[in-house]
Design a protein that fits this description.
mainly alpha; Arc Repressor Mutant, subunit A; Tetracycline Repressor, domain 2; HTH_TetR; transcription
């Protein structure tokens, strides 16, 4: 879970301060998503957020602190957009609808951008241990949301596979599909990856004797 945002000094934020901080994080997230971490400078963030340099340092000690806030922001956004679908992942129909929503989103985005969390992860994985762990934590939360539905199916006797393994494999298929969809600029890789995984899950649903 996210901790309450504070100033770089550690003091609690006022409502106005929270709004300003959120504007800075949102601007940074967009720039990092579009340009990458290196190209998205603090000066760019300042201009995009419409704040002064001193305001940025009022809320963030350095770019690393801002990056960690962006990772949390992107994770929250990804999970919150899927929340209405997550609560229905305890049925094959719900899983298929989730799949369709993910594919439709990529169509609307014209297969650009990839996964906001995965994109950050690929940039920090080998050179920023703290950020890598933050991204990994976001994926753990995503996996847990998938696993909750599969665990419910298993508890009802509607799934004889391991919910932990199936959830991890589903997330891995999703991330691979998103990357290839981004590179190829077509949704077929995502469709094929998710369909194969959901067919695998369906194969673990006991059939009436």
């Amino acid at each position: 879970m996210s901790t309450e945002p504070r100033q770089s000094s550690g003091k609690p934020l006022t409502r106005k301060g929270q709004q300003t901080r959120q504007r800075i994080v949102a601007a940074a997230a967009q720039l990092m998503y579009e340009r990458g971490l290196t190209e998205a400078t603090l000066e760019d963030v300042r201009a995009a957020a419409g704040v002064s340099g001193s305001q940025i340092y009022h809320y963030f000690a350095d770019k690393q602190a801002l990056l960690l806030a962006v990772i949390d922001y992107q994770t929250q956004g990804v999970l919150e957009r899927q929340a209405p679908l997550f609560c229905r992942l305890d049925t094959l129909e719900g899983l298929r609808r989730w799949r369709d929503a993910l594919v439709e989103l990529q169509k609307r985005l014209q297969c650009r951008g990839g996964c906001p969390i995965g994109s950050l992860g690929s940039e920090v994985a080998e050179n920023n241990p703290e950020a890598r762990l933050a991204v990994a934590s976001g994926f753990v939360r995503w996996e847990a949301a998938i696993r909750a539905g599969l665990t419910a199916m298993h508890a009802r006797g509607e799934l004889d596979g391991d919910p932990d393994d199936l959830a991890l494999a589903t997330l891995a298929a999703l991330q691979g599909g998103l990357l290839l969809t981004q590179l190829q600029r077509q949704v077929r890789p995502l469709e094929v990856a998710l369909d194969a995984m959901l067919d695998h899950i369906e194969a673990h649903v006991p059939r009436p004797v």
